[in-house]
Amino acid sequence: MRIGVLGFGTVASATVDSFVSNRDLIRSKTSTNIDVVRVATRTPARAEGRVPAGCEISDDCWDVVNDDSIDVVIELTGDVAFGKELILGALSSGKHVITANKALLARHGDEILAHAEKAARSVLFEGAVAVSIPIIKTLKESAAANRVSSIVGILNGTSNYVLSQMSEQGVDFADAVRDAQGKGYAEADPTLDVDGEDAAHKISLLAALAFGFPIDFDAVEFSGISDVELIDIEFAQRFGYQMKLIAHARLVEGRLDVGVEPTLVENRSMLAQVRGSMNGIALHGDLLGSAFLYGSGAGGVQTASAVLADVLELANRGSGGGPADLGFQRGKTTLPEYVPALDRTRAFYIRVQLDDRTGSLAEVGAVLAGAGVSVSVLHQDRSRDGVTDLIIATHTISTEQLGQVLPLLRNVAGPGHSVVVHPILDAEIAP
Ligand code: HSE
Fold first, then answer.
1. Structural domain of 26
2. Whole-prediction pTM
3. Active-site residues: which are they?
4. Does the beta carbon of 276 lie inside 6 Å of ligand 1?
């Protein structure tokens, strides 16, 4: 099996290095001869001396895509528009494709997989989500006979690393992001990590795989961690929670609820124990019950591990493509019905900054009672310079109720004072 690699950035170079370092082991697991025969990169000098003997280095990706002697193209350019052209070109010319390009799959996955089906070629993408966790293979294979009801996870290693550094070391947000970039966790554009978009790409792929709908990236509401304040991480910890960037996809009475946002997770949940650049995924299915998967969520070598697993899958499958590669279920073209945002019900953490004056607590109480919001935790912090933080954890309420109370709480808080809200993860879907 002759392989061409597109790109030579963090993941592509780690893939080639890992192939070279583990070549004998990889070859011992298949009767197919596997060789990396071409690498294409805009900066060929980076690849000199790092490719296997006899591997050609080119500065034009189309040299690889148009090379008839190549069986498998590994697309690791990280570019959505160019990556799509290259993948479609590779499939049209009869090659199987392996990619870790989740942004591309989230936006164009259905088109690409339809193209692959027509060409009877495979598109494998284990490296696209939670790199060291075999979640794509789990959903396609191990959990295939299940009606999956929910997937909840920490899917962005960079954000989890940043939140962990902030909560454990008191490190500043910008320093923690720089550190994550230096360690090779972050995307080329780290705003994709910290604004929640990368996790949204990943949960849209998992939702499509788990529930058998076409991918609908535009339906995924997401927000990231760049506005998360250290004070809320600390209050969360005082009340037995960790702040995590949680991606969720679940079916509620046949309707899909999917999104990404900074969320408080109870300490007793396994998701709360996921620290640093690790990822964790809780899965519920009608047959399997609950499963929790944990592993590295980012890093060049860790992604290479998933990409090379796809290489072995193709090598051991033989030359055909086939339904097993079609992660998103065939013939399913109808988009799901979504849970309307206002109907969503959750518990919330609310921090209201208040002037420490007689009656402000009663005003907050009246606002909450007026909207039928029941409180499970209430704490007023010691005031500094006449200003105090009131911490409220609500029982389960609807987004509509939250929408009623927020402007009123802002009125009570007054100008220059903030009202901060984060959802609390439902313990039922977070073992
Ligand atoms: N930048 C991603 C993350 C890594 O931090 O999780 C690969 O998906």
1. 2-130+301-325
2. 0.94
3. 202
4. no
